[in-house]
Amino acid sequence: MKNYLSILQEIREEVLPLLGQGKVAGYIPALQNIDSRRFGMALVTLDGEAFVIGDADERFSIQSISKVFTLALAFAKLGEGLWKRVGLEPS
């Protein structure tokens, strides 16, 4: 079994020096007052075992990443036929 917490810790150490470098999108009300140094990850295995690191318990607005979840649901329902309708462009 993989040591997922160790993997998350390794990623966190690599990312820590980069925190605060980006700029929060001030034109999105849900993000206007968010600290750009926040960072957290959570991983849940198929067995239900959870691994959490950093600010993973902090509530946040998912914004555009929600499109990935919607795409995954559509793909689960339609399979490869989805690409005939949607195409392969990132938008």
Description:
The protein contains three helices and two strands. The protein is an alpha+beta fold and 91 residues long. The longest helix has 13 residues. The model has no long low-confidence stretch (mean pLDDT 88).
State the gist of this model.
The chain is α+β, with helices and mostly antiparallel strands. It has helices at residues 4-15, 66-78, 82-86, and strands at 40-44, 50-54.
What characteristics describe this protein?
single chain; 91 residues; alpha+beta; two-stranded antiparallel sheet; 3 helices; 2 strands; extended
In helices, the fraction of residues equals 25-40%
**Secondary-structure content class:** alpha+beta
- Helix segment tally: 3
What is the molecular shape? extended
Strand composition percent:
5-15%
How do the helices and strands follow one another from N- to C-terminus?
HEEHH
- Unreliable spans are none
Biggest β-sheet strands, sense, barrel: 2 strands, antiparallel
How far the N terminus sits from the C terminus, by CA atoms, comes to 37 Å
Rg, nearest Å:
17 Å
How many domains would you count in the coordinates?
1
Report mean pLDDT, rounded to a whole number: 88
Number of DSSP E strands = 2
How are the strands ordered across the major sheet?
A: 1-2
